[in-house]
Fold these 2 entries.
Entry 1:
Amino acid sequence: MTASPAPTAAMIAIGDEVLSGRTKDKNIGHLAELFTLAGIDLKEARIIGDEPTQIADTVNTLRRAYDIVVTCGGIGPTHDDITADAIGAAFGLPVGEEPEALRRLAASYAERGIEFTEARRRMARMPEGATLIDNPVSVAPGFRVDNVFVLAGVPSIFQAMLDNVLKELPTGVPIVSAALDCRFPEGDIGGPLREIQKSHPGTSIGSYPRFDGTRHSTELVIRSRDAAALEAARQAVAAMLADFEAKSAS
Amino acid sequence: MTASPAPTAAMIAIGDEVLSGRTKDKNIGHLAELFTLAGIDLKEARIIGDEPTQIADTVNTLRRAYDIVVTCGGIGPTHDDITADAIGAAFGLPVGEEPEALRRLAASYAERGIEFTEARRRMARMPEGATLIDNPVSVAPGFRVDNVFVLAGVPSIFQAMLDNVLKELPTGVPIVSAALDCRFPEGDIGGPLREIQKSHPGTSIGSYPRFDGTRHSTELVIRSRDAAALEAARQAVAAMLADFEAKSAS
């Protein structure tokens, strides 16, 4: 993977249990935070079901559109774990037992005196040529094919694997941000804020309303890859808020 | 919208703040639960940024693929609220102030003695021909164009709007489910479970591993639109688990 000032990425969370609402995804938010710190632009995230064609089509669309694709879910030992085969289909690669993955699994189960069942052997299945992603939590590795990183869905395992993936990834110029709490509603500040955004094109200014049931408030977040541009926009927003404070006090 | 035994749906959460990890999406999980109860199949969910082209392209792809599309986010009064214009672009419709929305907003701000600013008027902007989705929390309505339902991103407002949307939607035959806790790891039960799935084609059996840092356990979930098929599969899984219990006791 070549270095880039701002690598782009997409994430795919795979699992019927997320689409049914039974499981609430935690992996997308975790990856989003880490990628932001690493200067990698997460451009989209998709949650899809345990459907071979949907998985393969989604992987193919996203791996061509972005520098990095991370998937989670569907690499365990049961019949509904079909991600490895779907990734093989996406790349047109045969899928079989990867020798080093098989060795690690066999050794781990032998050491623990647990039977190495046919179901457990499935966790060594990967597309030909895949490289392993270490799993320090529960041994069964994830894998990488080209720019696609295939990780487990259980959050503790996903997070441990992602730490290993991050070591291999190109990092970008991190986006720095400044947040200002604003006690005035969006409808009051919307006009002036639009003018500030126009005159600070190197920044992205977001306005995030909150509503606690009785009162609206707003968090204003300025983001930029350029610290000086960030600071200039932050000062402009702070000055606008001071104006509103002065007006509301008078 | 025509009734269907199992309407299909997709959800789009719009917002840079979710992709940066600053905000954790709660709306997808909420919609997933409600749609499951209503017998509507949520087939995928996407999180995308505040990018007009990305929003329009995503809406166009999903509204053609599924019966129902729900979006959240980007319909407030500030410059980064661009969803209404992006939906207009997706449908090739002009976007302007919707009279009834404008009337509701003007009346609400007049009543509260709050200035009806240019920024606040933006919340009346909708594609021509859109119908309103009531907002009992903070007045500014969402809207519907064809099979696309455009809702607010703030969770309390999203949820209130979604309750109103659900009244208009076709419901399907609800999927019923049964969950069994399994103290045996997936690698032990994987083989027999696969056989049970094969002999119960009217059901979908999911195996969801959990790992608490020291011990693996598994939740087995059987889902079906047919109560008798569900019960038959549940009994087969329960019998398998009883076998494992007997073996582990001996």
Entry 2:
Amino acid sequence: MYIKNPYEIEKKSFEIITKELGDKTFSEDVGKVIKRIIHTTADFEYADITVIKEGALDRAKAAIKNGTNIITDTKMAMAGINKRKLSEYGGQVFNYVADEDVAQEAKKKGITRSIVAMRKAIKENPNGIFVIGNAPTALFELVKQIKEGKAIPSLVVGVPVGFVGAAESKEELLKLDVPYIVTRGRKGGSTVAAAIINAILYML
Amino acid sequence: MYIKNPYEIEKKSFEIITKELGDKTFSEDVGKVIKRIIHTTADFEYADITVIKEGALDRAKAAIKNGTNIITDTKMAMAGINKRKLSEYGGQVFNYVADEDVAQEAKKKGITRSIVAMRKAIKENPNGIFVIGNAPTALFELVKQIKEGKAIPSLVVGVPVGFVGAAESKEELLKLDVPYIVTRGRKGGSTVAAAIINAILYML
């Protein structure tokens, strides 16, 4: 015998998470983001490494309500975002990493497809919501273009995962005065990225 | 300045993982699976909680070479699997969770779409490779049908994540004499599930 009702499962999950967080409390919206990350990873370390720029959640909510598009660095993050909910406000999710022109350009230059896809994304949506769950190279490129004034994001979800450049790319983002959500250090990922966006969508 | 070449990034990542694993060593194929999970999560706990049934990797490799189909419990896991590589051997990835008939049946019965989607998947591919990265209810249903002799999987990747049923569903799977890969306890997820399948694909 086990719980088969999806609403009961989610309710019980968040009760357990809240209980196990114990003394750690957050403002309402920040708590919603952090709990949904823990819900998707079963990893309480995210309560300590998640950094949300002041005002970023309000700015992101307003942007979504305005129909702002979301750009992800992977198909996985794209797949995980609740696109039905997003489309209620007119926004769409884009990912260019599998585009033929991106693949060719990356191969020619010997750089990641993530960098080339990010360049394409910024050209098409300089004020978009940028969601990076996997590729540090995509986040480094975005940081560079923010500094140059070419990208003015409504939100940067900077949660690439890994051992080469992930932590460093997030520290670069933290230096900027833009609305961001970051998981410091090596941890993150496409499921974390999607969970953050969905947490914001469910606040609306 | 940062590394922009995708092959260098992956090579360096696996070197760091191998170094930090230190004394923990594994047989060649098992090591490849565990290192790819850590690569995708930056979480070394997976070295301790990943359990691979003896012979499961050889069986899975043979199944993939034979064109066996893969069924996932989420669109995210589906998105993360290297489908181009899989298709070289004739296999495809299926996921039924967003099907209209699945949604209707689940709503009518007040159970998760994951359960209904799993029932549909077993009917269509009783000998498939089942990849469960998210929903304990999908894994409970699969375990039930394995016991009833209705599902005879070529491999079960049982890595659902979460607080309600995830750990318990994996313990049920561990009791069965089927080829499985499990991450004990609460941890797992769609990225972990996809990483396991890709690790096997890259062995071929």
